[in-house]
Design a protein that fits this description.
Largest sheet: 3 strands, parallel
Number of helices: 3
Structural class: alpha/beta
Number of strands: 6
Distance between the termini: 65 Å
CATH topology of one domain: Ribosomal Protein L15, Chain: K, domain 2
Helix content: 10-25%
Oligomer: single chain
Strand order of the largest sheet: 1-3-5
Mean pLDDT: 92
Length: about 150
Amino acid sequence: MNVHELHPAPGARTKPTRKGLGIGSGLGKTAGRGHKGQKARAGGGVRRGFEGGQMPLQRRLPKRGMGHRFQKVFTPVNVGALGVFEAGSVVTPESLVNARIVRKVRDGIKILGDGELNVALTVRAHAFSQSALQKITAAGGKAEVI
C-alpha cells in the first residue's frame, strides 16, 4: 500500500448538498427552510434559552447560595461516636472510615463535643471543638491536631 493509493471508505465522505438549485433537486425554492417566518430569514433563529419574550426559566428561578472557592469542608464526628474504639487505641481519619463512622474525609475531620466518652483514646484529627477537647482529656485521652 502506498500513500497515493489511500482513499476513504465508501460512503464515508459525501458531497455537500447545494440548496436552492431548482425544484428537481428536492431542495429548491425555499431550500429546506419552510415558508416565511423568523427561521426562514437570513440570520434567523433565536438564541439559546430564548422563550419568545416570555421571562426565561433561568431568570424565573431564584438565585441560591454562594460558592466559597477556598473554604475547607470538614467532616463532623461527635465524641459519642468514638466509644466503639477500645481503650488506649489511636483514632485516625483512616480508622474512622474503616469503622464506618465516616464515609468521606473531604478536607479533614472535625471532632465535635456531642455525646459522652468513657474510654481513654488518642484522637488524631484536623480540628477539635472546645467541648470535644475537654471531654477527651477528661476521659484520660489525648487530642492531636494533624
